[in-house]
Amino acid sequence: MADPVHLHGYRYSVYTRVARLVLLSKPVEHRTIEVDPFAGLSEDYLRLNPFGRVPVLTHGAFRLFETSAITRYVDRAFEGRPLQPESVSALARMDQVIAVVDAYAYWPMVRQVSSHGFFRPFFGEPSSREEIDSGLEASRKVLAFLDGVAGEGEVLTGRDITLADCHLAPMIDYFVRAEEGKAALSTHLALQGWWDRLSALDILKATDPFANRPGNHESALRIR
């Protein structure tokens, strides 16, 4: 009997969704365990991740946190189509996209544009035009870089899914839920084409955090 795979994470977390997309892409039979990091964490969870963040993957007795480590482990440990390119240049580009997304995309696109342009209005909470504008400005370089990558045709093609697609997709999904983000993306034709193809995939629909969502609205505003 195979060791069970459990993903501990928060449904609104982009990084939990990254891990889920990778698990579904392989595909790996797994169970998801909801953990709201804003509602107080149990001692059991803090033993899995002493830093108190999500997600955490457990595979039998083995436990792992940090999303990039989880996604690479899943790709290496389980059968299925590889989610990392074979060519050296494409693999390097994939790694670069993931690093850029973490360092430069998450905060402006998710915590500023999406949080204040979509989440807060959706849940009837106050939002800041200044935060949206600041996030849009900071997103310009990110979108331009990603558009160039999509235009190269090695990764971010929307056809041969890699870890880069799985890492970026949840952030773009949140970004374009804000009208300002949707408009910003539409001016980058190669990246828009990538998103049009990727957003139609079943794995994106299956991991939509607003499908059958629970009623905890306050913590949803503090997406991680």
**Biggest sheet descriptor:** 4 strands, mixed
Overall spatial form: globular
**Fraction of helical residues:** 55-70%
Count of alpha/pi helices = 10
CATH class membership of the largest domain: Mainly Alpha
Terminal Cα span: 34 Å
Order of helices and strands: EHEHEEHHHHHHHH
Compute the number of structural domains.
2
**How much of the residues is beta strand, in percent?**
5-15%
Q: What Rg do the Cα atoms give?
A: 17 Å
List the uncertain runs: none
Say what the CATH topology of the largest domain is.
Answer: Glutathione S-transferase Yfyf (Class Pi), Chain A, domain 2
Q: Strand order, biggest sheet?
A: 2-1-3-4
CATH second-level architecture of the largest domain: Up-down Bundle
Task: Give the SSE layout.
Layout: E1 5-9, H1 14-25, E2 31-34, H2 43-48, E3 56-59, E4 62-65, H3 67-77, H4 88-122, H5 129-152, H6 163-177, H7 179-186, H8 189-198, H9 202-206, H10 217-220
Task: Name a few traits of the molecule.
four-stranded mixed beta sheet; single chain; alpha+beta; 2 domains; 58% helix; Glutaredoxin; Glutathione S-transferase Yfyf (Class Pi), Chain A, domain 2; 10 helices
Overview of this protein structure:
The protein has about 220 residues and is an alpha+beta fold. It has two domains: about 5-75, Glutaredoxin (3-Layer(aba) Sandwich); about 90-205, Glutathione S-transferase Yfyf (Class Pi), Chain A, domain 2. The chain is about 60% helix and about 10% strand. The chain has helices spanning about 15-25, 45-50, 65-75, 90-120, 130-150, 165-175, 180-185, 190-200, 200-205, 215-220; strands at about 5-10, 30-35, 55-60, 60-65. Strands 2-1-3-4 form a four-stranded mixed β-sheet, covered by helices on one side. Helix 1 packs parallel to helix 3, helix 5 (about 130-150) packs parallel to helix 7 and helix 6 (about 165-175) crosses helix 7. The longest helix has about 35 residues, at about 90-120. It is globular and about 50 Å long.
